[in-house]
Amino acid sequence: MPKDTTERKVVATNRKARHDFQILDTYEAGMVLSGTEVKSLREGKASLVDGFGQFYNEELYIEGIYIPEYLNGSWTNHAGRRRRKLLLHREELVKITRKIQDPGYTIVPLQLYFRDGRAKLEIGVAKGKKEFDKRQTLREKQDNRDALRALRERNRSAS
């Protein structure tokens, strides 16, 4: 399936999720938002750090995401942390449901962005990492950095 060439305007990224979890699958989901939430997102304000996905009545909702109140909003303003419905195809919901039935698996938000004027949330089915896994990942990153640095130095001295 060809990738979309449309541009993403990233609002928020959950870097902590990639550190704390091993991401197995990713999905792009639409979100049901109110008008003031969209305006607040267009200002580039959001936090995905404490977010998680949960099923209610066979529908997927995301909780813990913080979208601050819109400053110019009136009595129609939204609550900062509320449960928001995700829009996915039925087949995707069935796949996600099967995957998270095993213990240790969860749904985490990875990135919030606009595509073609619509707010999208990239979610991932993830398994929590143990402390030694996190240290191993950091060690591998550091080793790769050191190897690239050594190659760069060697190439500079050769020319």
TrEMBL record:
Region spans: Disordered: 134-159
What does the UniProt keyword field contain?
Answer: Cytoplasm, RNA-binding
Q: What's the short name of a Pfam family annotated to this entry?
A: SmpB
Report which superkingdom the organism of origin falls in.
Answer: Bacteria
Annotated GO molecular function terms are:
RNA binding
Single GO biological process annotation from the record: trans-translation
Where in the cell does this protein reside?
Cytoplasm
* Family annotation (Gene3D superfamilies): 2.40.280.10
Database matches in CDD domains: SmpB
Q: Assign the protein's first listed, main location to one coarse class.
A: cytoplasm
Q: Which InterPro entries match?
A: SmpB (IPR023620), SsrA-bd_prot (IPR000037), SsrA-bd_prot_CS (IPR020081)
GO CC annotation terms, alphabetical: cytosol
Family, similarity comment: Belongs to the SmpB family.
Matching HAMAP family? SmpB
Function description: Required for rescue of stalled ribosomes mediated by trans-translation. Binds to transfer-messenger RNA (tmRNA), required for stable association of tmRNA with ribosomes. tmRNA and SmpB together mimic tRNA shape, replacing the anticodon stem-loop with SmpB. tmRNA is encoded by the ssrA gene; the 2 termini fold to resemble tRNA(Ala) and it encodes a 'tag peptide', a short internal open reading frame. During trans-translation Ala-aminoacylated tmRNA acts like a tRNA, entering the A-site of stalled ribosomes, displacing the stalled mRNA.
PANTHER family noted in UniProt: SSRA-BINDING PROTEIN (PTHR30308:SF2), TMRNA-BINDING COMPONENT OF TRANS-TRANSLATION TAGGING COMPLEX (PTHR30308)
UniProt name for this protein = SsrA-binding protein
